[in-house]
Every structure is written in C-alpha cells, then in structure tokens.
C-alpha cells in the first residue's frame, strides 16, 4: 500500500488522475488513501509524484528450493 508523506504533498493531484482504481483522493489539498479491495497498488501514483510524497514499499521474499 502506498505511504503518503503529507508534508511533501503540493496538492497537484497528478497521483489522483493516474489512479485507475480511485484509491486516492484530495482532502484539503493533500492526497489521501482510501482503502478499497480492487486496488493492485500499481505504483503509478509514486511514478508521477513530482515531490516524492508517495512511496510504494514492497517486500522481497526469497524462497529456498
């Protein structure tokens, strides 16, 4: 799930415009995540954010065979 750093958000709304599942909204000119089941956390919001306010952390799992 994306993590928002509200102090970095400039309220441009680019992330909201690329979010195909509508998991992001603007509240008082700060992007906010709403949890929905259909979101695959594609990281497009992180890619378009000009201020680095959004980060999509991921976990790498290494399995032994």
Gist of the model:
The chain is an alpha+beta fold and 65 residues long.
Please give a handful of descriptors for the protein shown.
Alpha-Beta Plaits; two-stranded antiparallel sheet; two-stranded antiparallel ribbon; alpha+beta; 65 residues; 2 helices
Layout of strands and helices, then pairs:
Layout: E1 2-4, H1 14-18, E2 24-27, E3 30-33, H2 44-48, E4 54-56
Antiparallel strand pairs: 1-4, 2-3
Any overview of this molecule?
There is one protein chain. The chain has helices at residues 14-18, 44-48; strands at 2-4, 24-27, 30-33, 54-56. It has one domain (2-56): 2-Layer Sandwich (Alpha-Beta Plaits), CATH 3.30.70. It is of the alpha+beta class and 65 residues long. It has a two-stranded antiparallel ribbon with strand order 1-4. A two-stranded antiparallel sheet has the order 2-3.
Averaged pLDDT: 88
Oligomer: single chain
Radius of gyration: 13 Å
Largest sheet: 2 strands, antiparallel
Low-confidence stretches: none
Q: What fraction of the residues are assigned to beta strands by DSSP? A: 15-25%
**What do we call the CATH topology?**
Alpha-Beta Plaits
